[in-house]
Amino acid sequence: MPLFNKGHLHGPKGRLALLGKDLRDRSVLLALNFVITVDGPESKSTRRQPGHRAFTGAHESNQVEINICCVHLALTGNGVGRRLPNTKTPWPRASFYAPWVMPDIIQDFTFASDNTAGMAPEALAALTTANAGHAPSYGKDEWTRRALELVTGLFETDCEVFFIFNGTAANAVALSALCQSYHRIFCHEYSHVDVDECGAPELFTGGAKIIPLAAPDCKLTPTLVERAVLKRTDVHHPKAGALSLTQSTEWGTVYSPAEIRALCATAKQHGLTVQMDGARFANAVAATGVPPADLTWRAGVDVLCLGGTKNGMNTTEAVVFFNRELARDFAYRVKQSGQLASKQRFASAQWVGMLESGAWLRHAAHANAMARRLAAALRPLPGVKFIAEPAANGVFVELPAATVEVLWAQGWHFHRFIGNHGYRLMCSWATPADTVDRFVAALRAALPQS
Ligand SMILES: Cc1ncc(COP(=O)(O)O)c(C=O)c1O
């Protein structure tokens, strides 16, 4: 615990104190996490310590608020060198060096990802209910039976469903059922399977080659896929094996049913199976208003990795095989890859809680609505450039570097995602509207003044 949350350093008349603590003792300073406010007309002077990041913002007439990791604070003015009232000790004349650990700024992870939120209440409540008593293990329990029934009902077809701990494993193990080691897997160049899974699809397929394709808006097109497939068809090159689509995409865009149908038709024409990374599938359903079946098997998707985590659950995704032939022996892959939960009911219960109540779609719609609110507020701001038109729960914008520095220093967390200036702002089921508004206000204030 920091000793102080906020300090006021009163310079001119010698009241150099921080919530009553004597600032002359450097050892006290070393223990602090705080923001210093230097006020008084003659007392403010801050200097960056070379090699350290220091941010100075929130200027009022004679206030300097310093959010810093490390700052050299030089005191000037009448207060320096004078005595504290009731003490004989003079203030140090020299400036002092205060390597504070971190400022006491509120760290806000709202927009860093859609997995920074907690669990949705419906999933948490189901988890608690499932905690009572004893139940059969390894998916032989009643919760799992009900969860499978609900997923099947959601897709209006007799599909095979397996629960997996996370999205990387879902994609990688699913692709291993679709591809041999000598296959090629086509995906977008920003796809999670290519850039964010540490080679897991390559490992689990035993060496299938991922072929990333560049396309606008993070969306593949039939022409691109066909061109990539036909680039080489000889035995010296890996055989075209699978197409991996992400819905909604890594840039917050969404494929329409017609686009998926066209892509799947091309894939089938060339003998490819189609896997869909649906870590944010719920957001795509909420965005399009289209039945889940139309975005998947009716359009030609063979297997969907249906996201639970980003939808408000904890450590659970579902692999849904519409092409049941491909699910043959998949249970063994799940077990072999360490993905079979012995206490399966805790994953299954969350699905039951979310699907039975309709929360999965409600929460996804909320996340999308927050992204729309954010986008609408950012759109008129000079210096903010949209990278893609937001359709789901992410907003992707280019921002001036100086603005980003200010926001980061203020404690807003979000990631650079595309190129040097492209940032990802994610919304989730738990994003409050007023946090969106506060972020926009902070961003607006941090834009360079023209
Ligand atoms: C498009 C996409 N797919 C899959 C995942 C799942 O990743 P994880 O393995 O972290 O659950 C993510 C997470 O960021 C994602 O963005």
Keywords:
seven-stranded mixed beta sheet; globular; binds pyridoxal-5'-phosphate; alpha/beta; 450 residues; 20% strand; Aspartate Aminotransferase, domain 1
Overview of the molecule:
With 450 residues, the protein is an alpha/beta fold. The chain has three domains: 6-98, no CATH class; 121-357, Aspartate Aminotransferase, domain 2; 360-446, Aspartate Aminotransferase, domain 1 (Alpha-Beta Complex), CATH 3.90.1150. It has 14 helices and 20 strands. It has helices at 26-30, 121-130, 142-155, 167-178, 192-195, 200-204, 222-230, 257-269, 281-288, 330-336, 345-357, 359-378, 401-409, 433-446; strands at 6-10, 17-18, 21-22, 35-39, 46-48, 54-60, 63-68, 71-73, 96-98, 160-164, 183-188, 209-213, 239-246, 273-278, 303-307, 317-321, 385-386, 394-398, 415-418, 422-426. Strands 10-16-15-14-13-11-12 form a seven-stranded mixed β-sheet, sandwiched between helices. The protein has a four-stranded mixed β-sheet with strand order 1-4-7-6, with helices on one face. A hairpin with a 7-residue loop joins β17 and β18. α3 packs across α11 and α7 (222-230) runs parallel beside α8. The protein is globular and about 60 Å long. The two termini are 41 Å apart. Pyridoxal-5'-phosphate is lined by residues 166-168, 192, 246, 250, 277, 279, 309. Pyridoxal-5'-phosphate (PLP) binds at residues 166-168, 192, 246, 250, 277, 279, 309.
